[in-house]
Structure formats: C-alpha cells, structure tokens
Amino acid sequence: MKNYINGTWRDARSGRTFSNINPADHRDVIGAFPLSDATDVADAVEAASQAFHDWRRTPAPKRGDILRIAGDIFARRKDELAAIMTREMGKTITETKGDIQEAIDTAYYAATETRRLFGYNTPSEMADKMNLSFRMPIGVCGIITAWNFPIAVPSWKILPALACGNTVVFKPSDDSPHSANIFAEILEEAGIPPGVFNVVHGQAEAGSAIVEHPDVRVVGFTGSTATGTAIASRCGELNKKVSLEMGGKNAQIVLADADLELALEGVLWGAFGTTGQRCTATSRLILHEDIHDEFVERLVRAASTLIVGNGTLPATQVGPVINTKQLEKILHYIDIGMGEATCVLGGKRDTDGDKAYGTFVKPTIFTNVSRAARIFREEIFGPVLSVTKCTSLEHAIDLVNDSAYGLSSSIYTRDVNAAFVAVRELETGITYINAPTIGAEAHMPFGGVKGTGNGHREGGWTVFDIFTEWKSVYIDYSGKLQRAQIDNYDN
User: Where do the H-state alpha helices sit in 273-344?
Assistant: First the structure.
C-alpha cells in the first residue's frame, strides 16, 4: 500500500511502514502502509499548491461533474468497499454500507451545490454604484480524520472542499488507511486532475506536518478534543482557518409519556450501534423516575440478546472496538464505573471462541449513575451506557447540559410542548425528537458546541463556509470619485 501524491502511488521517502490490523482478528494483517513524515507531506502540499492554479479556475459546475461521477463510482463499488471497511475497522457490513451511502449522498449534494455557490448582492449607499460579493476558494486544505467513519466523514470535508475549487492533502487515521486509498482510486477514475487530491498515510508526525506547513491554508479535523484543541491553538498562532469536529457525551431523555418501545429501540441503536464508537453515540440515558425501573428492565433484557462478533457475519449486531489501546481505555472506564454505579449488564471483555483473537467488549449498562460520576462526564467511546434518573423535564435538561460537550441530544415524548422546550434549551448542535442521538443526514449542518467544536458545521450548505473566503466587489460607473466611509449626509 502506498501514498497517493500528484496522481501517482508512492512509498514514504523513509521507507518506513506501519501495519493495518483487523480488530476482529489480530492475526489478520491487512497490509503495510507508508509511515510518512514531513518530507512526504511537503511533496503532497507542493503538488496540491501547483494543481490549485488550474483547479480553482475550472468552472464550478465542471468540478461538480467530476464529483457526480465519483458518487456513481462509490455506488458501484459499495459492496467491495464495505467489506474493506469492515475488515479494517470492525463495524458491521450494514453499517459500512451506510457509511458509503453518506459519501454517495454527499458527492451528489456537493455536485449540485457547484451550481449554487451563491454570493450576495446588496444596494450601494451611492448612486451609480453596484455592490457584489463572491465565494472564493482558499487554497490547499489539510484534512485529518478519525477511523470510525473512514469514508463518510472524509467525504463531508473533501468533496465540498473540492467543489469550492480547493485542493486537498488528506491524512486518514492509521487505523483505517485502506479506505482512503479506495477514496483516491474513485476520485482518480472520476477524472480528478493530478495533485488536486492527495493521500498521505502516517501517524501524529504526518498530521503535525500538515498543520505546520505554511502552504496549507485550511485544516479540517475530526478526532479527540485534546488533539483538536491543540491543533486549534497552533492554527491560531499560524493564522490558519481550522474546523474542528471533536468529542461528545450525548444523552437520550425518556419522559414518562414516551412510547417506551420506540425509545428502547432508539437507545439500543444509539448506544451499541458502531459498538458505541461514534461521536454522536448515546453515552447517557436520562429516564424519568416514573418509568425508570420498567425501562431499565426492558433495556437489560433487550441488550443481553445483542450478538457480538465479526462484522462480516450477517448475524452480528455489535462488532469489535478498534484496537488494544481503545480496549484498555474502555475496560479502565468500566472499572471506574464499578466503583461509582451499579453494573447491570456486561462489564467485561468478550473472549468467546474466535473473539479471543480480537478486541471485543460486551455491551455494558450502568444504573444509579450520578452527575458527579466520571462515567457520566467523560467520553468513553465504546459500548458503555450510563443511566441516570430524573424527576422532570427541567431536571432532565439540566442533566444533559451538565457536560463539557454539546454535540447531539435526544428526547422521547408525546408532548409537543415538552419537545419544543427541549429544542430550545438543550445545549447541543443537534437534537432529535423521538429518535436516537445518531442519524445525521448529508444535507443538514453537522457539529456541536462547547468542547465538541469551534463553531463550524459540516454537512449541508454550511460546510461551504469552511472552504471558501468572501470577496466583496464594488463597481462604480458614475464616472466621478465617490467617497464611502465618510460623512456624506452633510453634502
């Protein structure tokens, strides 16, 4: 496996590599990928800088044509790519197909938006003068993403960046590098010119080199809050635009009037889908005291039947966690939870049969979780759910908002008034009514507040604000000097 730089496949200049390992079976080594450093990043940035001159002048709808073709190719290769993704990062085939569908949807949406990169016109304060504004591409975009959505999340950044006329240097996670190479193959087949899109594999050294390179004008990052805030600090010093999508500690509220069966289906999917390894995963469950005991009983019974296993097996509902480091982190938090709350399900590694060769954790549920508990407050990123009792809607909202994060929230209720109060009061970038905390759609803004992000939104029309700069244009056809920004009202 190689880097993709200026339309060619290359090894790292150092010759160093790292191994990509199947989390469901550590005996399965998928391949060796380049362990790139600053020299490889410099090659990719130089190629992207050179390609930018022509790409930004390519008519936007022509750029959109390429993205539309890429969407067609993603659709054609969906089954093949889903199998590759499941093998390298573990989630079920059904979920990896959904991951690719996000890219397909984003490709078609971004392609359409190349005909809608609207500016604004506004009247001038002076006679015989016209005021216009335009979206302009920025330059080379450095894209750094996590492993849990190896195609969808990169597509949210890469495809709009390309649509706007920027070029891209992409560093995928070292836990899901193979998917990035397929991304490059698809864009190449679609007709992307050499240098417009580049893939540089590696670890923290390569990511830091992208942030530090003076010709990288924009950094788009998805990952941990600790890493994201460090990138933001450095980009601030370097006067670079940066978009951050970071952690979450998302909560689902279930009020006493809710459809409990629907709420149960929601929390099972939100907490244990993708093995809890989503920034939007349901990590906290806030239950009204009137239905708490009944709901917990139903939840434990249903969650105990979830099938844990290799994501390639049709019956599997919960795949492995990504690697040994994350396994150890999750088990550490489970140990912490044992001293803070009551474990009513799971609480241990799953080593049954062939699962002993992978990194599997049994779906875990804690009850009697106080707001002071670490498992209530800290992101675990695994199949661990904390349940807390509330006494009212106001109490539930207060519990949800008592968090350093603010990505996604959910409330189940039949009371439309309660639903709209929650929409207004929940301090999150996304709120679902009678649906789980996961399930974003490609044409809607995606992102959070507080420790989750820095104000930008991916997805939908808002992502184009990340990858463009505004240019104001004043056209004076009066034939005389007209002076703005002075007091013209005394004349």
Answer: 292-303, 324-340
- Tokens for 73? 């190719």
Active site residue 279: yes
15 Cβ partners below 8 Å, 6+ apart? none
96 contact partners, CB below 8 Å, separation of at least 6: 81, 82, 83, 85, 86, 311
pLDDT tens-digit series, residues 206-216: 999 999 999 99
Query: Within this chain, do residues 233 and 361 fall inside the same structural domain, yes or no?
Result: no
Q: How far apart are CA 146 and CA 160, in angstroms?
A: 18
Angle of helix 93-113 versus helix 60-76 axis, rounded to 10: 160
Q: Residue 369 region, left (φ>0) first, then alpha (ψ -120 to 50), else beta?
A: beta
User: Active site residue: 164, 235, 279, 390, which one?
Assistant: 279
Q: How far apart are CA 402 and CA 461, in angstroms?
A: 30
Query: Coil, helix or strand for 364?
Result: strand
How many angstroms separate the Cα of 476 from the Cα of each of 95, 125, 136? 56, 11, 22
Contacts of 322 (CB under 8 A, 6+ apart): 23, 89, 90, 147, 148, 175, 277, 359
Any residues with CB less than 8 A from the CB of 486 and at least 6 apart, and which? none
Whether 409 contacts 431, CB under 8 Å? yes
Does residue 169 share a domain with residue 261?
no
Domain housing 216: 3-246+453-473
For the stretch 168-186, pLDDT in tens is 999 999 999 999 999 999 9
The two most distant CA atoms of the chain are separated, in Å, by: 89
Question: pTM of the entire structure?
Answer: 0.96
Known catalytic residue at 245: yes
Beta-strand pair 430-433/408-412: parallel
DSSP-derived secondary structure for 262-292: HHHHHHHHHHHGGGG-STT-EEEEEEETTTH
Given 46, 188, 245, 458, the catalytic residue: 245
> How many domains are there within the chain?
2
Residues 70 and 173 in one domain: yes
Summarised one tens digit per residue, pLDDT across range 258-283 is 999 999 999 999 999 999 999 999 99
Shared domain for 203 and 261, answered yes or no, is no
H or E segment and range at residue 3: strand 3-5
